[in-house]
């Protein structure tokens, strides 16, 4: 068994830090649901500003609030305004990640979603593992498009 990325929030800004809370990270429930983060799921958090790395669990915050609040001991690792990457993992075989297609939200100012992508792991014609980053499905009946705008200025 290996550990694979299951869901990811890339570049979301910290909107609060509450040292006296029980612990965890509170994230807008709508954002969690869109990428597939579940309540109480363990996540890794990587602070792009300081390099700090922590592990904690998710609490759903108010839907539509765009909140990202570090609680308890985690509050010491980030400042309001810091950009963080939040990722969850699942354990399984490579065929599990091929079937899952992890979803990623990419954020801009005010925690607005500026891009939605999917990590697509597949086997090429020779059976070798490969991957690409695809634009998230729009609901239209068209083939997936390789994402071209995955970096945020």
Automatic annotation (TrEMBL):
A Pfam family that the UniProt record links to this protein: Asp_decarbox
Top-level taxonomic group: Bacteria
Catalytic activity line of the entry: L-aspartate + H(+) = beta-alanine + CO2
Active site per UniProt: 24 (schiff-base intermediate with substrate), 57 (proton donor)
Modified residues (Pyruvic acid (Ser)): 24
Keywords, sorted A to Z: Autocatalytic cleavage, Cytoplasm, Decarboxylase, Lyase, Pantothenate biosynthesis, Pyruvate, Schiff base, Zymogen
GO molecular function: aspartate 1-decarboxylase activity
Assembly, per entry: Heterooctamer of four alpha and four beta subunits.
Record text on cofactor binding: Binds 1 pyruvoyl group covalently per subunit.
Organism annotation: Methylobacterium aerolatum
UniProt main location, coarse: cytoplasm
EC numbers, comma separated: 4.1.1.11
Binding site for substrate: 56, 72-74
InterPro entries for the chain: Asp_de-COase-like_dom_sf (IPR009010), Asp_decarbox (IPR003190)
Protein name: Aspartate 1-decarboxylase
Named cofactor requirement(s): pyruvate
Role this protein plays: Catalyzes the pyruvoyl-dependent decarboxylation of aspartate to produce beta-alanine.
């Amino acid at each position: 068994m290996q550990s694979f990325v299951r869901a990811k929030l890339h570049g979301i800004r910290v909107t609060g830090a509450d040292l006296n809370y029980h612990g965890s990270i509170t994230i807008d429930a709508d954002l969690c649901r869109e990428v597939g983060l579940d309540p109480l799921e363990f996540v890794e958090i990587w602070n792009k500003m300081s390099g700090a790395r922590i592990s904690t669990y998710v609490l759903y915050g108010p839907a539509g609030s765009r909140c990202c609040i570090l609680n308890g001991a985690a509050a010491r690792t980030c400042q309001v305004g810091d950009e963080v990457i939040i990722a969850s993992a699942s354990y399984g075989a490579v065929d599990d990640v091929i079937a899952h297609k992890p979803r990623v939200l990419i954020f801009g100012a005010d925690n607005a979603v500026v891009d939605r992508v999917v990590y697509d792991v597949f086997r090429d014609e020779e059976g070798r593992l490969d991957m690409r980053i695809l634009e998230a499905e729009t609901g239209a009946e068209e083939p997936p498009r390789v994402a071209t705008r995955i970096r945020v200025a």
